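Appendix B. One record, verbatim.
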Amino acid sequence: MKAKVALLGCGNPAQKWHLPTLSELSKRGDIEFVALCDMVEDIAAAAGAQYGVPHYTSIDEMLDRHKDILVVDIVTGDPTHHVLACQLAEQGKHVMVEKPMALTLACCDLIIDTCRRNGVQFEVAENYFRMPKQRMILKLIEKGILGDILRVYFNEPKRQVPFERNVTPKGLGRPISSFGRTSGMCMDMGAHRLSQLRLYAQSEPQQISAIVKKYHSDPNRVHEDWAHAMIEFRSGATGIYETSRLGELQKFCQITGTLGSILDHDYFGPDLPLRLITGESWDEIPVHTERRTIDGVDVLQRIVVHTKPEIVFENRFRDHAIDDWSVGHADEIMSIVNAALNDEPAEYSAGGRKDVEMAMAIYESSLQGDGAVPVQLPLLNMTDYERMVHEDYEAKYSRPIERY
């Protein structure tokens, strides 16, 4: 049985990744891509024509015309994730939402509870850990090649711009005073990085201390443009997450264990810079990839790490015209499809909530006192930050955030 899949939201992320990946999976017989929907007619029509599927501007009409849709891939703005996921779950559809899972933990729990009540599965479109190089890194960690993980770092720039001449740094104000597509850097790219740090550490966070700053004076830029967080994991590993839109370019990921390290200055690139400790020296471990061209696309076949014994990652989509980046998207789509067909949890469903929880702790830590106040995890009560989000949401949309 092939799952019939529809896509909701045809904006930039859908056009760059979800739509071409859904189309390729459908072409190869993994799924049936049967419909798409966007509230803007021109956008929906253009996407429908490009990929040869019926287009709609109404979810109800799409579902009425295609009653056998099994899975809906929701690629819309952050404030809509919990609303659309719950509405679709109540109509018996299995759902995948883009990251971050939802605006707050209460919204995440609405998705979880609604899906559970209606007997459907859900997934979060966290694609980064599913990319081939990241799968191999996690395989190395799980096999103990790096030993016990001690420190994990992510230092990430995003669209660097100069500081203003007379900059006056500010802490968090109202978090979402004008709701847009995204909900802050620590929830946007942060959802990816917090996920990776937790998976690298192979442990759950127990405490986060953070500072979040806004340096731009433009009142229309309501989100932070710099953040620094220290994460203490239950295993004893320490994580550092820093992200910035300002100043000099700093970009690296580092994973350090008792037996070796990975220091990657191009974590989107194909190279895997692995070093292992031999005596008192560090040895570079050869890593090579096998690739071939399919329909004009350079497709990874496998990654081989020349440890003893060798460790191999095989790309499950090696016969598809899907590049390294979009392997993560193909993997997440097949995760929710298989969960729907087999009535079992998707691979990362619970992980999406954990990412939001870590981001909520970062914001809460920065709000308290002068910032960097340690926040314990798991969060047992609604944070001050989440209350602010809920108040602003109701002011913007004239309804409580829980009413979908």
